[in-house]
């Protein structure tokens, strides 16, 4: 057996022993299609049950997302429909998956040989400036709220995605801080992926619970506005939180070409991610560089996986879908990280944060 195969064999065994948790994928958008079968392998996307099994994934957070241009009651109604689809999907495969809303439920799913599915709300516009809507989402299983998406909300500034945005509020408004405190009270994780730098530091000042970035990479490796500075990562670690590294080639690769947003939208509308959106190929080692930088900067207790599968037009070569996650783990083993460190990175850290958020809620 050659060295490459040996590392991959160790990685696959580690995935069986550990609880592998991916805190962000956009497969919910595929679940909206009643003709699509989550239980069958479909190379047009990045995630389905056969490939989750093949990749040794134990838990996946499914993002509820509505374009931020849709606002108000329309956006809330669309979010409710997506939450129902996640519940229906779990009910359709009761022997294979389990709907979870807490770390103990994720662990019970793993112990029972099932994959945990968790509900995540991506974008503060989906609560329509209403704490009662936020509470409703929590009752329906939501585990975190990403405070903003590509546009500012009425109460918090976004980093923007394709273009930088001029500040609107200069961070969080008073109501934005109230949202953070309510997330703490509900035991939901506060997600700072997509927020502006000013919003980020307002969250750090406001939250009584650990903070997460569910799908963000390192600005020191690739200077994209969606990535985190070392100072931001250290603040997350100081809160007891975790940085879940994003796999999107546009974020991890400083040489990735700028794509026309209309081309990207057409790519997603076609629904076939098996064909490349660009000829540019991002090497897997660049993504590993982000993990390496985060691990060296904030330590193995504060780093995890937030792939953004089914939500990005390009991924690093060799990591084209969730079945390939052991190749990432093998690459980290080759760089000298111990298996016990990687057990934390693969999922232990975010489960610890969920438990810490639950304790804050219990003490409220």
Task: Tell me what you see in this structure.
The chain is an alpha/beta fold and 364 residues long. It has one domain (3-363): TIM Barrel. Helices cover 44% and strands 11% of the residues. The chain has helices at residues 3-17, 28-31, 49-54, 72-92, 103-111, 131-139, 174-186, 197-206, 230-238, 249-252, 261-270, 284-298, 325-334, 339-363, and strands at 21-25, 59-64, 97-99, 115-122, 142-146, 189-191, 211-213, 242-245, 303-305. Strands 1, 2, 3, 4, 5, 6, 7, 8 and 9 form a 9-stranded parallel beta sheet that branches. Helix 7 links the parallel strand 5 (142-146) and strand 6 (189-191). Helix 1 (3-17) packs across helix 13 (325-334) and helix 6 (131-139) packs parallel to helix 7. The longest helix has 25 residues, at 339-363. The radius of gyration is 19 Å and the shape is globular. The relative contact order is 0.15. The model has no long low-confidence stretch (mean pLDDT 97).
Features:
single chain; 364 residues; alpha/beta; TIM Barrel; 44% helix
| Total strand segments | 9
Q: Going by CATH, what is the homologous superfamily?
A: Metal-dependent hydrolases
Helix content: 40-55%
* CATH architecture term: Alpha-Beta Barrel
Globally, the shape reads globular
Unreliable parts: none
When the domains are counted, the total is 1
Q: Structural class of the helices, strands and pairings?
A: alpha/beta
**Could you say what the CATH topology is called?**
TIM Barrel
Amino-to-carboxy terminus distance? 55 Å
Determine the number of helices (DSSP H or I, runs of at least 4 residues).
14
> Could you give a short account of the major beta sheet?
9 strands, parallel
Radius of gyration: 19 Å
The run of helices and strands is HEHHEHEHEHEHEHEHEHHHEHH
Proportion in β-strands: 5-15%
Give the rounded overall mean pLDDT: 97
CATH class: Alpha Beta
């Amino acid at each position: 057996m050659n060295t490459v195969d040996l590392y991959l064999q160790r990685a696959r065994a580690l995935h069986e022993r550990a609880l592998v948790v991916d805190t962000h994928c956009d497969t919910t958008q595929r679940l909206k299609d009643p003709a699509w079968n989550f239980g069958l392998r479909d190379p047009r996307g990045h995630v389905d049950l056969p490939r989750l099994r093949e990749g040794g994934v134990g838990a996946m957070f499914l993002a509820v997302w509505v374009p931020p241009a849709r606002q108000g009651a329309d956006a809330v109604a669309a979010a409710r429909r997506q939450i129902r689809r996640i519940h229906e999907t779990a009910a359709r495969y009761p022997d294979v998956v389990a709907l979870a809303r807490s770390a103990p439920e994720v662990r019970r799913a793993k112990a029972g040989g099932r994959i945990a599915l968790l509900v995540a709300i991506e974008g503060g516009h989906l609560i329509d400036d209403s704490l009662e809507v936020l509470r409703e989402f929590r009752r329906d299983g939501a585990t975190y709220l990403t405070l903003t998406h590509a546009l500012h909300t009425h109460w918090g500034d976004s980093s923007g995605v394709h273009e930088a945005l001029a500040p609107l509020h200069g961070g969080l408004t008073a109501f934005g801080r109230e949202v953070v405190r309510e997330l703490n009270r509900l035991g939901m994780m506060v997600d700072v992926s997509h927020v502006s730098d000013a919003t980020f530091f307002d969250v750090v000042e406001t939250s009584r619970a650990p903070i997460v970035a569910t799908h963000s990479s390192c600005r020191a490796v690739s200077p994209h506005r969606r990535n985190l500075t070392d100072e931001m990562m250290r603040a997350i670690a100081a809160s007891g939180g975790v940085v879940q590294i994003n796999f999107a080639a546009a974020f991890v690769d400083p040489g990735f070409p700028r794509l026309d947003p209309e081309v990207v939208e057409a790519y997603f509308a076609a629904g076939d991610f098996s064909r490349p959106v660009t000829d540019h190929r991002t090497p897997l080692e660049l993504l590993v560089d982000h993990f390496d930088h985060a691990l060296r900067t904030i330590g193995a207790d504060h780093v995890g996986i937030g792939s953004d599968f089914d939500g990005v037009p390009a991924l690093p070569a060799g990591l084209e879908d969730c079945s390939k996650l052991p190749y990432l783990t093998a690459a980290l083993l080759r760089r000298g990280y111990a298996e016990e460190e990687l057990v934390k990175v693969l999922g232990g850290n975010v489960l610890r944060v969920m438990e810490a958020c639950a304790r804050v809620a219990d003490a409220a």
